[in-house]
Structure formats: structure tokens, C-alpha cells
Design a protein that fits this description.
Elements: H1 6-9, H2 12-27, E1 33-35, E2 47-58, E3 62-63, E4 73-74, E5 77-89, H3 96-109, E6 125-140, E7 143-156
Parallel strand pairs: 1-2
Antiparallel strand pairs: 2-5, 3-4, 5-7, 6-7
Length: 163
């Protein structure tokens, strides 16, 4: 599927985060607020925040093989990181058990064997690799916060280059 514009194609964060919000929202209890980085909503608890952090582009630089300029050479392979932050509040009855169960659910959503990441949910990209990287837990007053990170590798699909 061709992107509507080059800017749309290169808007990696919006496309990946939108897909992740959809998957997470379907997996966690309905009381959870699930948001990406470009939200203008008030933050509530319990919530899950997702962010795609772009790493570097990977060699080689190759012809696009599609779109209006198929011989133009570009980077098409990228490294990235998923950051998922789970926030719950003990003061309002959001228990440690709920927090731990939701953390496990997030890990399930991002399994390498998961079927979420395909050309219908990410029409411009092929997810090549997703690997759990780290988990950090902290408390702040009554808040429990888990920050989960995954390493990603993805490529721009040949048919995604705009005409």
C-alpha cells in the first residue's frame, strides 16, 4: 500500500504508536487509559503510555524499488525502541496485583510470535525483529510505575513509497 505522501511514510512514530495503542487497548482492562506520545488528553490512572524512539538507519542505502522515484536510493531499514510505561495508583485502589497482571499482558502484546504486527496494521513497514530489552520498576508516593523497553528492527515496504 502506497503512503499518501513522503511525510506520511516517514511518520514512523505515529503509525507504530497508533497500532500499539490499538493492540494494548484491546488487551488491558477497559479502565486503563492507553496513549501514545502525541496525545492532548489529561493523564489518568491507571494508564499505559507507548512511545516509539527511532534509533539509527541501517546500511545499505538501496533503491526504493517503488513509488514515483524507484531508482532513488534511500535508507529503508531502521532500528528503534518501544518504550511502554505502566502507571497505577495505590491510593485509589489500583492494586499491585493489577499492576503485575497488566505488565504481563503488555509483554504478551509485544511477543515476537505475535500476529499483531502485519501489513494490515502496519501497511508501510515490515517489522523484522522485536526483542524485550529491559524492565525498570519504581514507586513515587502512591504510584507504581513499570517502564518496559523492546528493541525493534523494521523496514519500509517497497510498495509503500508514494507515487
Amino acid at each position: 500500500m502506497a503512503a499518501s505522501s513522503l511525510q506520511d511514510l516517514l511518520n514512523f512514530e505515529t503509525h507504530f504508536e497508533s497500532a500499539a495503542v490499538t493492540f494494548i487497548d484491546a488487551a488491558v482492562p477497559s479502565a486503563y487509559q492507553v496513549i501514545g506520545t502525541l496525545t492532548q488528553t489529561d493523564l489518568l490512572t491507571p494508564r499505559v503510555e507507548v512511545a516509539l524512539e527511532l534509533g539509527g538507519a541501517n546500511l545499505p542505502v538501496v533503491p526504493r524499488e517503488g513509488g514515483a522515484s524507484p531508482t532513488t536510493k534511500e535508507f529503508v531499514a531502521y532500528d528503534a525502541f518501544w518504550h511502554c510505561r505502566l502507571v497505577t495508583d495505590n491510593a485509589v485502589g489500583q492494586t499491585l496485583t493489577d499492576h503485575a497482571t497488566t505488565r504481563a499482558t503488555l509483554r504478551e502484546v509485544f511477543l515476537v510470535s505475535g500476529t499483531n504486527w502485519n501489513n494490515s496494521t502496519l501497511p508501510y513497514y515490515d517489522l523484522k525483529f522485536i526483542q524485550p530489552s529491559e524492565c525498570q520498576y519504581l514507586t513515587d508516593e502512591d504510584f507504581n510505575v513499570t517502564e518496559l523497553t523492546w528493541n525493534l528492527k523494521f523496514e519500509i515496504r517497497q510498495d509503500a513509497w508514494p507515487s
